[in-house]
């Protein structure tokens, strides 16, 4: 007997052989977790898809599945008939730092009318399941939220969720009435239609893609509880929920960022070239602009982003942040003044930025910082003031203005000090590129 | 493209060390932003495309 751990799907080689898999690469099995193609192959856990219906990913589903797989192996060795998979998770937990909610479920994974919540549950669940599990820390509760979504009979929408519909327990269709299913589908459709916009709103407000995704999850959980018949403008309503969630999170992360080691910078996000074509969007999410937004108070930031970036009316913003329209106008005015004093003076096209960046990169690679300094101050000699290039000075000035937002420092000692080698230092330690010259 | 603008990815011995974005004014570099926090660099999940409307 060979025991093989395979993760969420069958290994590529096995999948290309005789074993059939579903679209996500899980092994197709019958209800005793035996492969349809080879009775010697038995699968436990999430890489199985009994009756072509995958289990959802959670520890509570995986554990009984492992036991069931062992049971099948033992039955076969005793030449008895293996029992079909019972599947079934007993509890889904939403785990926070101080509190948790556990939703109990029946064997067929329909939700039972029993939930437990509070600090004790957090301790129990963390102690029993999540302790020492790095994934739990990484997932930041997202997985747990998915689990809760599903326990409530809803499908959490993600970009990838469309392909394999997650099914639960013993693969029987869930006993939800079709009415609530349809409502949920309508809500899902509306949410998915506006998902990119909502993500952008949250990212502009938080400067962190991971936080923005968490906010989107929370928005979704609130959105599915809303009675759609009473919503006149779904887009505005969704933006409102997202904004409120972002505002809450912004207040929390502010406190966390005060203790951040080094200056806080936004999470860089890879974007497609089409973002660069939209000059307004590219400017609003640029590193420089995100740092300026970071200097606003949470309410100012929310008001500024909604008004000046997303063009939301004052009336709507007032309703979102629970203030009078006049007060919101005043906040927007103040925020605009604050931002205008700090934002880059002009909007630079993507091509121009690229040209400057390429010149800078060439200079770094050839360590010809003098050329770069010319680039930094066109038409002439590098500024030798205190041995720093103009760019260095500008960077230092900028750092003073931004309250320490610059990570790298640029020194150009200059020939007067007898330094022939130009020095580049990032955080005082390492060299860009593979060369190391101090 | 990082945050809608061209940026540099700095590699040391084929390991990504950080992402460097610049601030440009009057055709000059007036700011360098160098992110080295590994937590902010593991862009493992595909993020939704950004959109203003």
Structure description:
The complex is a heterodimer of chains A (438) and B (53). Chain A has 18 helices and seven strands. In chain A, the strands form three sheets. A three-stranded antiparallel β-sheet of chain A has the order 3-4-5. Chain A has a two-stranded parallel ribbon with strand order 1-2. In chain A, strands 6-7 form a two-stranded antiparallel sheet. Chain A folds into four domains: 12-87, no CATH class; 89-170, no CATH class; 178-346, no CATH class; 350-426, no CATH class. Chain A is mostly helical. In chain A, helix 8 crosses helix 9 and helix 13 crosses helix 15 (325-342). In chain A, a hairpin with a 4-residue loop joins strand 3 (91-95) and strand 4. With 53 residues, chain B is mostly beta strands. Chain B has a domain at 8-41. Chain B contains one helix and three strands, in the order βββα. Chain B has one helix spanning 38-41; strands spanning 8-12, 15-25, 28-35. In chain B, strands 1-2-3 form a three-stranded antiparallel β-sheet. In chain B, strand 2 and strand 3 form a beta hairpin. The longest helix of chain B has 4 residues, at 38-41. Chain B is flat. The mean pLDDT of chain B is 83. Chains A and B meet through helix 7, helix 10, helix 11, helix 12 and helix 16 of A and strand 1, strand 2 and strand 3 of B.
Strand order in the largest sheet of chain A? 3-4-5
Taking all Cα atoms into account, the compactness measure Rg of chain B is 13 Å
The class by helix and strand makeup of chain A works out as: mainly alpha
Compute the CA-based radius of gyration of chain A.
28 Å
Structural class of chain B: mainly beta
Described by strand count, sense and barrel closure, the largest sheet of chain B is: 3 strands, antiparallel
- What fraction strand of chain A? 5-15%
Mean pLDDT of chain A: 69
Globular, elongated, flat, extended or rod-shaped: what is the shape of chain A?
A: globular
Q: How would you sum up the global shape of chain B?
A: flat
Order of helices and strands of chain B: EEEH
């Amino acid at each position: 007997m060979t025991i093989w751990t395979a993760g969420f799907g069958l290994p590529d080689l096995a999948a290309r052989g005789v074993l059939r898999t579903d679209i996500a690469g899980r092994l197709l099995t019958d209800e005793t977790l035996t492969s349809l193609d080879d009775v010697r192959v038995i699968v436990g856990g999430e890489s199985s898809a009994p009756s072509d219906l995958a289990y959802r990913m959670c520890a509570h589903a995986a554990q009984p599945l492992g036991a069931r797989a062992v049971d099948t192996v033992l039955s076969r060795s005793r030449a008895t008939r293996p029992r079909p998979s019972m599947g079934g998770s007993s509890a889904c937990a939403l785990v926070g730092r101080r509190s948790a909610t556990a939703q109990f479920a029946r064997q067929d994974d329909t939700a039972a009318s029993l939930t437990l919540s509070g600090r004790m549950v957090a301790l129990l669940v963390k102690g029993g399941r999540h302790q020492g599990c790095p994934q739990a820390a990484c997932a930041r509760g997202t997985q747990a939220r998915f689990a809760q979504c599903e326990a409530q009979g809803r499908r959490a929408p993600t970009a990838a969720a469309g392909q394999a519909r997650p099914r639960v327990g013993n693969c029987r269709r869930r006993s939800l009435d079709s009415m609530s299913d349809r409502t949920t589908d309508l809500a899902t459709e509306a949410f998915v239609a506006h998902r990119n916009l909502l993500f952008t709103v949250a990212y502009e407000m938080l400067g962190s893609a991971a936080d923005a995704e968490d906010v989107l999850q929370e928005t979704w959980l609130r959105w599915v509880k809303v009675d759609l018949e009473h919503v006149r403008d779904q887009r505005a309503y969704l933006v409102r929920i997202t904004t409120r969630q972002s505002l809450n999170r912004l207040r929390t992360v502010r406190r966390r960022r005060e203790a951040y080691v080094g200056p806080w910078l936004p999470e860089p996000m890879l974007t497609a070239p089409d973002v660069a074509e939209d000059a307004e969007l590219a400017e609003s999410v640029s590193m420089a602009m995100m740092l300026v937004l970071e200097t606003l108070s949470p309410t100012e930031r929310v008001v500024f982003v909604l008004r000046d970036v997303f063009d939301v009316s004052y009336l709507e913003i007032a309703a979102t942040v629970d203030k009078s329209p006049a007060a919101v106008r005043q906040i927007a005015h103040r925020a605009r003044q604050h931002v205008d004093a700090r934002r880059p003076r002009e909007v630079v096209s993507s091509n121009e930025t690229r040209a400057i960046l390429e010149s800078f990169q060439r200079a770094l690679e050839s360590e010809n910082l003098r050329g770069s300094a010319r680039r930094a101050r066109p038409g002439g000699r590098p500024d030798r003031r205190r041995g720093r290039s103009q760019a260095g000075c500008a960077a230092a000035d900028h750092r003073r203005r931004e309250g320490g937002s610059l990570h790298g420092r640029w020194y150009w000692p200059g020939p007067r000090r007898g330094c022939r080698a130009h020095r580049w230092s990032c955080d005082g330690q390492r060299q860009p590129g593979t060369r190391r010259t101090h | 493209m990082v945050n809608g603008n061209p940026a540099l990815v700095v590699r040391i011995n084929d390991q990504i060390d950080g992402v460097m974005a610049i601030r440009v004014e009057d055709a000059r570099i007036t700011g360098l932003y160098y992110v080295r926090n590994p937590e902010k660099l593991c862009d493992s999940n595909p993020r939704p495309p950004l959109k203003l409307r």
